[in-house]
Amino acid sequence: MRNRKWMVWASIFCGLLPLSAQEPAQDQLRLAEAGKLYFAFKPLAAFEKYIELSKDTHNKEAFLNAAFIALEQHQPKQAVDIAMAGYRLYPQDEEILDILAESFLADGQYAAAERILSLLPESQDKAGFYYINLARAQLGLNERNLAKYNLKKAASAGTHTGLADYLLGTVYAEEADYPTAATYFEKAIAYDHQFTEARRAYAQALEKSGNLREAYRQYKTIYASEKNDDTTNQAIARLKGKIPPSQEKKETLPLITHTIVAALPAQENSQQEVKIGLGVRPNGRPSVRDSVVFTSSHPFSVVNEKNVKIAGGNPGEVWKVVLSQRKPFLLTPAGKKIAFRSSVLIKPVSNDNTKEPTLIVKNIVSGAGMTWMSVADKEYRGKLQVLYNSRLNTLVPVNILSLDAYLQGVIASEMPTQFPAEALRAQAVLARTYALKHIGKHKHYGFDLCDTQNCQVYGGVQAESESGNEAVTATLGEILRYENQPIESVFSANCGGITQSAKDAGWSETPYLKPVSDYKAFDFEQLQPYHFRMLLQYPLDAYSRYDKNVSLAAFRWTRVVSSEDLRKIIKRKKKDIGEIVSLIPERRSGSGYVSQLVVKGTKGQVTLSKENIIRNNLSLGMLRSSYFIIEPNYEKRKLKYFVFYGGGWGHGVGFDQTGAAGRADSGQDYKEILHHYFPLAEFYSLPKK
Fold this sequence. Notes:
Strand order of the largest sheet: 5-4-9-13-14-2-15
Low-confidence stretches: 8-22, 247-251
Shape: globular
CATH topology of the largest domain: Serine Threonine Protein Phosphatase 5, Tetratricopeptide repeat
Radius of gyration: 28 Å
């Protein structure tokens, strides 16, 4: 039935009907009605309304929307028919030419696409995208030198640098010029370190160029975030035996030197202690550990779970907590074993009120499950508790410290310290609010919060900075509340121009987590579906487009995912649906984020719902966000890969960190910034104790 509807509506465009005289205001009402249907997740009903309007009045926006929906529903031939009908009426219109070229590309009509793209003007804000599409058409026509020429122009245009460099790398790799290919793949991941497909192509080009050590390192980086990619795993196994042992060996480094840290100012309203689980897994679950090695900057005592002192130590001594045959014990520097049942607490003592003792814990994992995962020694304020979790048979290091000391180790871990002071202060208020709202989140593991993105990233003393610490003290005791309770102070790195509601992200309805725009000159009251092409493919100005000390890849990103990779991912994570045929967004909110998407294959289909599921099932590693549009690319009529044009980094709900920096840079203070993202929340100062 669906295909029949598409065929009926497409047949209308074999001959255009006479233009009826209707007022522009009436057109706008009908456009708005169709748009409401689309954002109510009824794309076919919306499509019919746009078709009716284009038939009745030849409204240009109706053609653009109908063609956009046809492309999104994987009906490229119908999109070509619709766009051609618009082209006959508006042969000089840039938007019509643009979507007609896109439709030809999606349908594999490369010569027609190349001809249309040659008619488009070289405007500064769109040139990069046009050059990329022109190159794609030329690659389809096997005009490889022309394609390389246009991809180099696209890369220099600066709007889609990562994609242009990646496509250049693929062309050179296909020509067996692996050193040149590696150069361009490296540029692609330098622009966007999350572009895992480019990183794998870079590793492959390095390997074929003979640079085995760096190839191996890149494969291992991929493995940190994508452990099930066959190509990567096979390469690691293949290269491991070819690399000299000295290149694989991990150096055993001494413990880092203690930092002299100043004591926090008097904190009359913030003496509450928090327990932070260290080096945990991405979901907050404790990692497997059979030892915890630590040293203190000051004398310390050790008490057991009954608060009985069992040992004491001196500054600089290296102590261990060890698990052996399901029995934990404390190991002194002299080798003495002191047994305990469930926990030990290490409490440093300082006689100098201006200086604070610190503890260093060896081999703490940071960024578990991410491409930037690392293992290093970490330094912490406060006390160290080591729990023995008998159910998991592991030791769990826990940092116990005051709330604001904890926040100092959070701010710089969650936001670049080079950001303006008012943005850092806004982050401090949110971090404090989050901590108070979620204390006890992981109490079943013996701690309140963890040190990963599952809660808030916490890096201890090394993560502290003068500007971050200032933000904590400048907002001392301040939180945001709604109906007398701390709010869910959620945030993402970049909203891509507009936040989405908690409900649209697949969470529960939350009154104060509604969409707000960061664009400086775009009226979302007049939003139509086809606008997402403009918003995601061209660089409109927005506060979240801030690019000082942060990559623009967080605001606008691209990914190229091969149909074969996607087939393997869906088979592994969901079920075998055969060769991938299409990706169809079924639900897109007014913010542009996709909340439901159908993956169609030759043997069935899979429906992906909720933003985190969508992000984790459509690429190697994960997509930066679910705010994207998709373009298929064919070679010899066979689907080869999908291009994702995306915006933002994270779930897009609540506070936008990069947008906050842009707003602070324009002169807004932290209270103005927070009021923008949480308009229904109120500021509240914690009572003094």
